[in-house]
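New to this. Please check this record:
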Amino acid sequence: MRLITLSLFLSFIFCSNSLIAQYDKGVIKESLSFQSKKMGEVKYSVYLPPSYDRHQRKYPVVYLLHGYTDNETAWVQFGEIDKAADKGIALNDFPEMVIVMPDAKVTWYVNDHKGALPFEDMFIEEFMPYINANYKVRTNKESTGITGLSMGGYGSLLYAMKYPDLFVACAPLSAAIYTEEEVIGYSQDRWDQVEGPMYGKGLVGEARITEHWKENNPFYIANKMGKESLSKVKYWIDCGDDDFLYKGNSSFHILLKDMEVAHEYRVRDGKHNWPYWRTGIYDALIYIGDYFHRN
């Protein structure tokens, strides 16, 4: 009986791997250029699903955001997003989708306090309309998702909360969200190098909690929005048990729980690194894709 069970199991694995190997692959196009009126040239990469060139139908779209100091190639080179997408589509774990990866440099996906780098305005007012006009994607909320890692996890959460009528689901991985106490306690070098360019260099302690910072802080945004508005988007929050960002992610989960906002919260074994994100993105796409399936 054990031999029969093992044989069936091995046959299943073989068939599954064969299906993935034989299935048409999607196409990655790296470092394409979009000309923004607000920010000049913006680079992006895009994953087009296997049937993209064979059909005229339109596809759901997921915006996939990179982390601090990375660029539009990171999710391809280190995250192997094409492998994850090909596998998920082949196994019917999620539907075919277009995946868009913009280069945000180190903007934190926000408008800087001086107005010199309006990345958020560019993304919402120019980049998303550009993708809608130049790719075969569905433009409705129910067909648009957003995810990302670290700084990109923060960016995905920020956009989903600020623009709940644009996204059906958001799945931040290891989101770089911090409590007010953490920000006040940053070393001066850390603040001036990482957050200072966007929120103001030289700020010390409580002076860092400016109105501009509050406008881009998920805790303040959530309390201002309230349960009804927050519930317009479905959230999947994932952070490793050994990730240094555990406090912000767990605190945000607690806040949503206390506000009775339905969401999913996952703590897996792992750190703030690519092995964690390469596995996490698959489940994130399943979660987002599930809402695409419900259309």
The longest helix spans residues 2-22. Residues 14 and 76 are 26 Å apart (CA to CA). Residues 179-216 form one domain. The first strand starts at residue 27 and ends at 36.
